[in-house]
Structure to design on (627 residues):
């Protein structure tokens, strides 16, 4: 009986131990699921405090399984959960190390194939594109299960899509469809195939591809996305009546309530495409009001800002709308551009006020020479000049001598005119107004040190809008009057650097903007090039802010983003973007503070927050915050 009792005790202890480690792992899995659910609530994938909290807790619980129950059957699951939690938190360096620990420690795990897929995605996020594709191709060659092979193809397609390699993306999405068959993954791949054909302007094929989605067991969420994309395809292809009919039908069906906001936004874009600006304004305003504090509201505010800026020419309302983007959705993909435009408008108002002030100082002198003679353009023998003209020139020269101390005043006057001209052209696309300001500068000789610069601006403006004959005429004027001008030398291809030149800086800056979504590393290189080559231009300031934003929202590098926001503040303490940079920096520092406090609290509670990371090895799981 005693032996039997001891046997019962042993069995009981084993059972209790088994329950303990399973409960710990079960809790880890629950927190992981909550983190995913919280992440899905945000359509833009923002890493909120709640998201971090859930994934951090999942990591702590999983680490506890590995530390306290080293023989547990759930160890590989726990190690996989750590890596995945770090990935979704965008702590990619930590996730990479944890995936590598998983591969080394659990080479025969049933989760290995799926871990290899996410490992490849992680490498891509870290910028190791070739390595990522190599790993995924290797996995696809050895994988035998159709669904896992389809997941590998889908991951490869996603990576090519992110790099804007549409041919390769299309190839692997099609392989996903044929391999996954009736799985919802096939429907998701078919959706992306339609997107690619839309990008290529293959409208009919895009519509056909989209309608095929129903053949592959799509989720309800994907069906909703399909309806929105179909409305967008009709709109972008000019099939306005079909777009309107589809949108109105879906808006009148309560079953589509979850996508009403997106459909209303599409309706506003439809009005915009039809040049019905009043209706577009009304619809965007309704969307912003009906769906507050959502990505849809953020986009609606941005579109309103563009509408007021480009069509209604109402800068006050444009500024207000752009400023509302971040209030509606702090993580909006439009947030940086909206803030930049709001700041530019504010600067424009400041320049206008400054112009009124400096004009008061130069107005008396300008009135005296109104209609007078520009002696720089007079090429005659002084003996042959009539006495009346000689006297006028003499008085003019005397007047110039009397006001020699006003040179700095006029310099400010011309500089303000030039900056207003630049803003009209570069920021507001108001070509006629820009020409007025540049023309005013280069036609006035009175204490004017930037006539050649204004001619240079007009020359490039004319070239930019296709008025090549006019551009050549302005170039001839430069050759005649300003043979030694560095701006003329630059146009002629000589090796001249114009460090404060906004025109050349802007051209490089715009090429960086084009790479922002699909080639962020290339964009960053170009932003840094702007800073190096044109350090005194306004675009150096914008580029530094863009680099900080890229580290924050594309590379998810907390330390680097903080470093660049701090660098921006130090370099441009009086910048109009200061409030934005300061706000983002404060938010990032709050995250750092929260992470540190979370780790301290965990240690105080007696839980090991993470297995210590050996810098010389990647064979141990690490905390998501170790990077």
């Amino acid at each position: 009986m005693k032996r039997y009792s001891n046997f019962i005790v042993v069995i009981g202890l084993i059972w209790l131990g088994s329950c303990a480690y399973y409960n710990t792992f079960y809790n880890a899995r629950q927190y992981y699921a909550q983190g995913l659910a919280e992440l899905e609530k945000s359509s833009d994938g923002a890493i909120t405090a709640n998201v971090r909290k859930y994934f951090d807790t999942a990591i702590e619980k999983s680490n506890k399984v590995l530390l306290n129950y080293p023989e547990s059957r759930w160890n590989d699951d726990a190690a996989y959960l750590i890596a995945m939690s770090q990935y979704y938190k965008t702590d990619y360096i930590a996730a990479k190390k944890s995936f590598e620990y998983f591969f080394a420690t659990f080479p025969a795990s049933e989760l290995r194939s799926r871990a290899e897929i996410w490992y490849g995605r992680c490498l891509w996020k870290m910028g190791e594109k070739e390595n990522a594709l190599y790993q995924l191709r290797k996995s696809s060659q050895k994988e035998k299960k159709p669904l896992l092979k389809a997941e590998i193809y889908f991951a490869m397609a996603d990576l090519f899509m992110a790099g804007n390699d549409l041919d390769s993306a299309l190839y692997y999405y099609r392989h996903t469809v044929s391999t996954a068959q009736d799985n919802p993954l096939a429907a998701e791949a078919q959706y992306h195939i339609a997107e690619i054909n839309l990008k290529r302007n293959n409208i009919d094929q895009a519509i056909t591809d989209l309608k095929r989605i129903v053949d592959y067991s799509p989720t309800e969420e994907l069906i909703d996305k399909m309806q929105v994309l179909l409305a967008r395809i009709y709109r972008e292809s000019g099939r306005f009546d079909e777009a309107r009919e589809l949108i109105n039908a879906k808006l009148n069906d309560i079953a589509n309530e979850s996508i009403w906001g997106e459909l209303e936004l599409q309706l506003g874009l439809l009005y915009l495409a039809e040049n019905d600006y009043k209706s577009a304004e009304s619809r965007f305003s309704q969307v912003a009001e009906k769906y507050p504090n959502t990505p849809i509201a953020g986009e609606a505010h941005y579109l309103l800002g563009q509408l007021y800026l480009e069509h209604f020419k109402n800068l006050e309302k444009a500024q207000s709308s752009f400023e509302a983007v971040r209030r509606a959705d702090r993580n909006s993909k439009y947030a940086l551009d909206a803030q930049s435009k709001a700041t530019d408008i504010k600067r424009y108002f400041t320049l206008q006020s400054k112009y009124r002030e400096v004009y008061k100082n130069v107005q008396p002198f300008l009135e005296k020479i109104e209609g007078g003679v520009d002696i720089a353009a007079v090429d005659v023998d002084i003996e042959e000049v009539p006495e009346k003209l000689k006297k006028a020139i003499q008085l003019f020269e005397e007047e110039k001598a009397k006001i020699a101390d006003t040179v700095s005043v006029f310099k400010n006057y011309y500089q303000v005119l030039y900056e207003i001209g630049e803003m009209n052209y570069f920021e507001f696309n108001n070509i006629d107004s820009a020409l007025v300001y540049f023309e005013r500068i280069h036609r006035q000789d009175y204490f004017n040190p930037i006539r050649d610069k204004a001619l240079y601006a007009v020359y490039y403006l004319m070239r930019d809008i296709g008025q090549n004959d006019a551009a050549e005429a302005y170039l001839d004027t430069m050759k005649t009057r300003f043979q030694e001008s560095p701006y003329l030398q630059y146009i002629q291809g000589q090796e001249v650097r114009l460090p404060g030149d906004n025109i050349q800086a802007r051209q490089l800056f715009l090429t960086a903007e084009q790479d922002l979504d699909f080639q962020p590393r290339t964009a960053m290189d170009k932003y840094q090039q702007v800073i190096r080559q044109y350090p005194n231009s306004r675009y150096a300031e914008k580029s530094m802010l863009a680099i900080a934003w890229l580290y924050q929202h594309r590379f998810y590098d907390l330390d680097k983003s903080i470093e660049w926001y701090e660098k921006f503040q130090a370099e441009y303490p009086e910048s109009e973007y200061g409030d934005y940079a300061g706000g983002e920096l404060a938010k990032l520092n709050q995250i750092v503070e929260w992470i540190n406090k979370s780790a301290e609290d965990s240690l105080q509670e007696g839980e090991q927050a993470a297995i210590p990371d050996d810098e010389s090895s990647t064979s141990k799981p690490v905390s998501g915050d170790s990077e």
Observations:
- The first helix runs from residue 2 to 41.
